[in-house]
Amino acid sequence: MNILITGGAGFIGSNFVHHMVRFHPKDMIVNYDLLTYAGNLENLKDIENHPTYHFVRGDIRNRELLEYVFDQFNIDTVANFAAESHVDRSITEPDLFVKTNVLGTQTLLDVAKGKNVKKYLQISTDEVYGSLGPDGYFTETTPLAPNSPYSSSKASADLLVRAYYETYGMNVNITRCSNNYGPYHFPEKLIPLVITNALEGKELPVYGDGKNIRDWLYVEDHCAAIDLVLHKGISGEIYNVGGHNEKKNIDIVELIVDTLEKSHDLIKHVTDRLGHDRRYAIDPAKIESELGWRPQYNFDSGIKETIQWYLEHEDWWRKIKSGEYMDYYKKQYGAK
Ligand code: NAD
Ligand code: TDX
């Protein structure tokens, strides 16, 4: 396989590059990433000289560069992780989300079609299904009902992927995963924000009543699911990925505070996110029964390993938190 991994310098993408190098050492990997604020080559420092790994800095909206890269590396497989991924940023800058997530995906799909790739995989999200009440789960047939500019841009991208399957017969798959956590998670997202703020003795902002529910999956379990879908996914099919691990935000924040032996006084309830989805929960029965996927990590050990990773990689997150990220942070949360 000669695989183009877009967004490979971000959180999940860089974990997936590591996964590929480890489990498919003969495949050629091209990491194509624009290196926005979220892209970080430090995530890949340990494998930067690996013989099957290549990096190209580029935008998924840049058709000419993409065509060149597909030819140069004889790309036959695409996994599209590249996206603007943070819901809060999509509320203040929705146009960028349409440009990257919708136009970017369409450009990438079109180039992949022109180059006759064997497989195109779109990394999507459970957020495209909208918000659940206290009961029920998202299945692959749940209607799309995205609520944020982020999730609507991801849903739009999914529809384009569907169109390239129905119209042009491209071999495509879409995975829709729940919230990931683990190493290299950018500290604007809940879990790494809370871990690193707690270590710095800063306030821990909890939106609204803190009772919103997310379904959390360790990032390596997501990478294993993506690997399976790339190799065994049936053309045109969507696969939901999740670990039956629903948690209230406040419970996660308290767990992190307790594990780090910090004070609960750091926890601060702040103004709720606009349009804040109440609950996500994935039914992963299809990928389990059809492809044999099972999550390998449980949350208790996964979150401990993740906290340990942030304790051991202070340089990594301090560099991020001292850069332009602070301007975003001050805008989002005030100066504290
Ligand atoms: P991330 O923000 O950490 O990384 C995104 C990467 O994409 C960055 O490296 C960035 O530089 C790159 N990028 C952005 N715009 C680009 C462009 N125009 N061209 C090329 N590269 C560009 O995101 P993540 O959390 O790793 O998410 C990866 C994918 O998985 C996204 O598509 C996201 O929607 C999806 N997803 C994320 C989660 C989650 O919990 N984080 C869950 C389900 C699905
Ligand atoms: O400071 C915070 N305080 C807080 O209470 C932040 C950043 C978040 N939250 C809440 C909002 C959510 O209910 O925590 C929950 C998780 O928030 P995020 O980490 O921002 O994730 P979420 O909005 O659920 O989206 C994530 O999962 C699905 C990813 O960012 C998406 O890319 C993915 O598609």
The average pLDDT value, as a whole number, equals 97
Task: Report the CATH architecture of the domain at 2-181 and 218-241.
Answer: 3-Layer(aba) Sandwich
Ligand species: nicotinamide-adenine-dinucleotide, thymidine-5'-diphospho-beta-D-xylose
DSSP, total strands: 12
Shape summary: globular
Decide which structural class fits the backbone. alpha/beta
The order of strands across the largest sheet is: 3-2-1-4-5-6-10
Radius of gyration: 19 Å
Query: What letter string, H or E per element, gives the SSE order?
Result: EHEEHEHHEHEEHEEHEEHEHHHH
CATH topology of the domain at 2-181 and 218-241: Rossmann fold
CATH superfamily of the domain at 2-181 and 218-241: NAD(P)-binding Rossmann-like Domain
Low-pLDDT regions: none
Helix content: 40-55%
Beta-sheet strand percentage? 15-25%
- CATH class of the domain at 2-181 and 218-241 equals Alpha Beta
From the N-terminal CA to the C-terminal CA, the straight-line distance is 48 Å
Number of helices: 12
Largest sheet: 7 strands, parallel
